[in-house]
Every structure is written in structure tokens, then in C-alpha cells.
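Can you give me the bound-state structure? Components:
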Amino acid sequence: MRLVLLGAPGSGKGTQASRLREHLQVPHVSTGDLLRAAVKAGTPLGLQAKAVMESGALVSDEIVLGMLEERLTAGDTGNGFILDGYPRNLVQANALDALLRKLGQPVDIAVQLDVDAELLVERIAGRAQVEGRADDTPEAVRNRLKIYNEATAPVVDFYRTTGRLACVNGVGSVDEVFQRILETLAPTPEVG
Ligand code: AP5
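Here's the bound-state model for the whole set.
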């Protein structure tokens, strides 16, 4: 199963990806986590990405695609993967399709977690108090949500028009949302 998780900041992509990883037994590939690891390790890529991430803006398409290609060719994604945080604009969506075509591993389904803006802000504010993520400041969150609406939302249509989109209500308990995702992945029973 090759699954792309779409959704605004705070919609629960990371939370649900961890559950899906256990359930599907495939790696969770998060570009946000890969970038945060690079920042923490102080690699040249991390040094370039740090200020951009803290402002809530997107890291350059070229850097993220290079990082993703390296991750998807690491040898453990033969049975699939859950991709979280990529693609974030139409350039990345097309680049992902091209990369996966090259690897012979096309996306099976893109699942969009739908959560209204007020709840997103509330969830991120809750996480900020617990984890103190550098881009969970009110200003960076405003910027992240704006960028999501402008650049990332069209990616939902990209998957819809290519017949690979499932929309899931992301409001409810973590368990409830997880069950809804599983229902979209289950094959439809044959009639008759
Ligand atoms: P990234 O790490 O991808 O962050 P994001 O998309 O902003 O998403 P979040 O991690 O904030 O939210 P989430 O949807 O994963 O929700 P979560 O499960 O954590 O990206 C960070 C930055 O890296 C970007 O801004 C950019 O700079 C850079 N970047 C990454 N990818 C890039 C790319 N492709 N191109 C360019 N730049 C890139 O949940 C949020 C909170 O809600 C948690 O506290 C959680 O416990 C809680 N929660 C989750 N589900 C529920 C629920 N059902 N009920 C109650 N609480 C819940």
C-alpha cells in the first residue's frame, strides 16, 4: 500500500500515520520529520532549512525532493509507505508522480483529513504547550495555514481529478478518525 496523507497543519497526519504504520506494516515517511532531524543534526541541508521552517514557509522544492528520493530508495519501502507532508504544491505532486513512476511504485490512494481551521489552531496550540515545536508559534502557524490554503489545497484536486482521492472527516477521537481511514482503504464488497 502506497498512501499519501494530505491535510492542513494540525489535521492529524502524523498521529494517523503512526497508527497506519503499525496496521499496514510499512514505513512512515514524513518530510517534516526528515527536515527536523536534519536541523537537529546541523547538516548543511538542516542549516538551510531551519529559518524557513521556523517562519512557517515551505523549504525549496528541490531540497525536499532530493531528500525524499534518498528516503524512498533506502530499501525498506518495497511493500509500500505512508507519505506525510509531501506533496505540498502542484510542482511537488507532479515530481512525486514522476519519481514513483521511475521507481515503479505509483500512489494507490491519497487520504485527505478534513478539519476546520478553528480546531486546527486549537490542536496546534495544545501541542505547542507540550512539545514547544519551533514552528508552532502563533505567527508561524498563521503562515503555515495561509500557505496550506494557497499552495497545498490544489493538491487535493490533483488527486481527485486523477481518481485517487479519499476525503475523511478528521474531527473526532484519534480512534474514530483511524477507523474512518481504514474504511476508505477496505476494498468495496462485490455485489451479487
Ligand atoms: P510538517 O511536519 O509536515 O508539519 P505540518 O504539515 O504543518 O503538520 P503538523 O505536524 O503540524 O500536523 P499534523 O497534520 O501532522 O498533525 P499531528 O498529528 O501532529 O512540516 C513542518 C514544516 O516542514 C513545514 O512548515 C515546512 O517548512 C517543512 N516541510 C515539510 N514538508 C515539506 C515539503 N514537502 N515541502 C516544503 N517544506 C516542507 O496533530 C497535531 C496535534 O493534534 C497533536 O498534538 C496531536 O496529538 C493532536 N491530534 C491529532 N489528532 C487528533 C484528534 N483526532 N483529536 C484530538 N487531537 C488530535
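A couple of observations. The pocket of BIS(adenosine)-5'-pentaphosphate is lined by residues 7, 9-15, 31-32, 35, 52-53, 56-59, 64, 85-86, 88, 92, 123-124, 126-127, 135, 144, 172-174, 177 (CB under 6 Å). The helical segments are 13-24, 31-41, 44-55, 61-72, 90-103, 117-131, 138-161, 174-185.
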